[in-house]
Amino acid sequence: MPQAPTITSVQRTGSLLQQGAASLVLREAFFRVRRFDDFQRVLEISRSVLARTLKALVADGILERRLYQSRPDRYEYVLTPAGRALYPVFLAMKDWGDTWLGGDGTDVVLTHRTCGNICRPAMRCDRCGEVISATDMTYEVRERGEADAAAT
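-> structure tokens emitted (152 positions)
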């Protein structure tokens, strides 16, 4: 009897980013857009799609809803630690898109605030510091406790 496929964190993350306009909202949140009207103005999406997307990202613990004005109540949406931790995912998607889907004449250029230089961030091994690629890696699916123990 075939075993049911294991749903990994990769699939769960992909599903989260596919909700409504989640990837668009997160892109803007990374660059400090916080208020509903600002998201709507920049993204040009309907209020209902934006409201559902923000609600889902708050429920998933990616954004936090904070009151910034009373009478009427108005809220801003701030990335949580979990939301900020998604930034490398977006960097990887940007890098892939620039390499394989480029050609439309537009690009997002990233400047490192600390040194002031335009840069192309890279993923590195947390043990040796070397830039990694898929060909440098192997994998196996393990239960969460086993994977945590193996990493220490």
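The mean pLDDT is 86.
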